[in-house]
Design goal:
There is one protein chain. The chain has three helices and 19 strands. The chain has helices at 36-46, 174-182, 253-256; strands at 3-8, 12-16, 54-58, 63-66, 72-78, 82-84, 87-90, 94-103, 107-108, 134-137, 160-165, 185-187, 195-199, 214-215, 220-222, 230-232, 239-240, 244-248, 264-269.
Length: 271
């Protein structure tokens, strides 16, 4: 059975698959690949079955050593350098923040609640990978690889994400939603898989009292007392007490998952 060794994990290297949807009532975040489109594409290219676990690299790609030849697809944020001599060395992410390393057979780690995904919020699933970790790969898939080079489309300098107002837009002044959709928001370096912290003019509340904890979904724009919105990603908590002014459309979440620190993003009301 093929094994891979993590020679260097880069900044953050985790195992991800389709996550743990449908368990919010148990307090379990959905987790899973932050850019599911790139993740699914990588698995198709190497012939893996849907849902096979892959590696998600953030900002800096890893260095991996395999004990035998295998087929690998790199998708997501483009990388300026990939070297395959005795090891696979993936360079720094460009045009995004996450690269997916999909290996034929998938990554075999023990599933937790039906998923092999690393969840940074709760600690479910495997811990973020470290130097010296060794992972087993799954058995040879039935489908052949579809190895190919696909020209990546450069993302816009300032992506525009579509939002649906609410469910708590009435907790804000009438100009708050207008401000959200008229300004460019800077992605804070303190962002992670739990949420993207955005920097810009504060969104002013109309209500000053406390909101009881409510259910949250991926893509919610939660606004704490500072007025600086947080765009919730896959490892977000399942409940929260800050009002949600709007929710990003599910179709735009893969683009949100590639927002890099210090870049800008804009929002527009869907429809």
């Amino acid at each position: 059975m093929t094994r891979l060794e993590v020679v260097s994990p880069g900044l953050l290297l985790t195992v991800q698959d389709r996550g743990r949807p449908g368990l919010a009532h148990l307090g379990v975040p959905p987790s899973g690949a932050a850019d599911p489109v790139a993740y699914e594409l990588g698995n198709r290219l190497v012939g893996n079955p849907a849902g096979a676990a892959a590696l998600e690299a953030t900002i800096d790609g890893p260095v991996l050593r395999f004990d035998r030849p295998t087929t690998v697809a790199l998708t997501g944020a483009t990388t300026p350098e990939v070297r395959t001599v005795e090891v696979l060395e993936v360079g720094r992410c460009v045009g995004g923040v996450r690269t997916y390393i999909c290996v034929r057979g998938g990554v075999e780690v023990e599933p937790v609640l039906g998923s092999r995904s690393t969840d940074l919020l709760t600690g479910l699933g495997p811990a973020p990978l470290r130097r010296g970790d060794v992972l087993r790969l799954g058995p040879e898939p039935a489908d052949p690889p579809r190895a190919a080079t696909i020209r990546a489309q450069a993302p816009p300098d300032t992506p525009v994400l579509r939002v649906v107002p609410g469910p708590r837009d009435d907790w804000f002044t009438p100009t708050a939603l207008e401000t959200l959709c008229s300004e460019s928001w800077r992605v804070s370096p303190s962002s992670n898989r739990v949420g993207i912290r955005l920097e810009g003019p504060p969104l002013e509340r109309a209500h000053r009292d406390e909101l009881r904890s409510e259910g949250l979904v991926t893509g919610a724009l939660q606004v704490p007392a500072s007025g600086q919105p947080i765009l919730l990603l896959q490892d977000h908590p399942t409940t929260g007490g800050y009002p949600v002014i709007a929710v990003v459309r599910a179709d735009d979440l893969p683009l949100a998952g590639q927002l890099a620190p210090r870049r800008y993003v804009r929002f527009t009301i869907d429809g």
